[in-house]
Amino acid sequence: MKSVSSNLCTVVNNRLLPFLFVTIFSSVACKKTLEGSKAVTNHNTPTEQKTLAALATTFNVANNSQLNTAMAAAVSGDKIILANGTYTGFTVTKSGITIQAANKGSAVVSSGIIRLSKVSSVTVQGLKITTAGSTQTVDGESFPVAVWFEASNSCRLAGSTVTLSGQASGTQWVMLSGNSNNNRVDHNEFGPNSVKGHYIFVRGNRTGITVPADRTDWANGNGPNNPNMARNTRIDHNYFHDMAASTGEIMVLGGIGVAGDYQLTNTLVESNLFVNCDGDAEIISIKSSSNTVRTNTFRTSVGTISSRAGNNNTISGNLMLQAGKTGTGGIKIYEKNHIVTGNYVDNPQDYGFVLGAGDSYTSSNFSHAQVFNASVTNNIWINLNTRGVIIGHGSNDMLPPTGCTFSNNALRGSASTLLDLRLPGNTVFSNNTTSGSNPAMPGTPLTTSDTGPGSYSY
């Protein structure tokens, strides 16, 4: 069994299974120092392992020295609790541990980075992260970063307040890179920000991937698998706010060009709150495949949810309450097999929806791919008072949407053209309405009571 730190006596109580042989810790054992502790090689039966898990050590630390010592001694199942105070960033190389603030938001990481390096099942929770970050080599490229999931699996950043200070231009607040799988970023607060960068960047490694001059075959699903992409990331119940103009998208899913556009990354962005996120014409920029953006609430945020590159993305059940703010929009899609359904967009100043026209994959002026087989159904756009919904827009070659459906949607407002069929191609339109009273909002908007650290407990 493990010894415990000098400032903590582990209490052994009724968690022990009565039918197992149990070594009772004496008061002397409870006083063993951290320096003298040793992790036991695990040769136990599954039942014994469960019992040992019940005896996992909790390390209470109050400064960087104690934190570093605890990090070196911790093994899977252990918990490190940071007292109120200021700390330097840290690198986690042990799987299965939890690092948390004793009091949510009162343990402050004010310098360095938090790096989860090739680990699994690590949770970091309840911290306040104000660091400027530092420049790291991520996936073969140089990035300033504050929190970095490096080829890690089933890890979590939760219940934390991320509000960087003094960071360099281009800093990625949270980066998930390489062969990272099944990680979660949830119940955090991000913002405010006035420096170029992204709150979250879910990407991968394009190094060593030879991309074709003509991407057609890859776009049709015949490209190679890139093993070094972050996949199955869940981003939920975060509060994103106050991203200043011209600073960047709130988050990018993919964003490494053709090496990542057609990778099935399966990122799930759900139940987040976005308020005054004005950094770019794309609030969420999707540049990979098989992702889902659903049940989020957007308030007065410039730009759109944009499926910019990649296939098979779903945008559903989002509430976009834009209040006529200049530059606000709705949803924009390009490329193949997307689903847009059940969204509610109220009073955007720019387009409520764009079904894009596109460019040939072989075009020297390629910018946006032609749309194929999109399904746009059961959405509500109200107070479209400046611009409406546009079908066929935004490319150099102006190739029309092909094989798309636009059905059972409601469009309301005073714009001169609510449904602008600029270049509809063979899109099938059915059961859409442009008159009558405004349909009811199909859900309840999220608030800060539902998202961010205030909605999280541990």
From TrEMBL:
**Recorded superkingdom:** Bacteria
CDD domains linked: PL-6
Residue ranges of the TM segments: none
Task: List the Pfam families.
Answer: Chondroitinas_B
Instruction: Output compositional bias ranges, type Polar residues.
Output: 429-438, 445-458
Stretches for region Disordered: 429-458
Kindly indicate where the leader peptide sits in this chain.
Answer: none
Task: Write down the InterPro entries for this protein, in alphabetical order.
Answer: Pectin_lyas_fold, Pectin_lyase_fold/virulence, PL-6
Q: What is this protein called?
A: Uncharacterized protein
Protein's organism: Niastella koreensis
